[in-house]
User: Fold this.
Amino acid sequence: MDTTFTVEVHHGGYFVCNPTRHVNGLVNHLDDCDSDRWSKFEAEDIVQRLGYRRHKLLWFRVPNLSMDEGLRLITPEVPHFHYYTTIPT
Assistant:
């Protein structure tokens, strides 16, 4: 069964703490992302499509958690990234 979802991408800014938030950046929404194909590599492809040729780290926020509690680094070793982020729209 195909499940699609929307990704909200915050980019071009920086993080500040207390509380953690992303400032001075842009927000894009990417619709119809395919849960069957979603991975770190898909996230890196999105970064390239947004015009970034290089990046240091990619992060995601666990749904229903604040950025202080739910911000996670995307790595190939984190298979849970798929399950955290594929909430149907």
Observations:
- The chain is about 20% helix and 35% strand.
- The two ends are 15 Å apart (CA to CA).
- The beta strands are 4-11, 14-16, 21-23, 26-34, 59-61, 71-73.
- The mean pLDDT is 80.
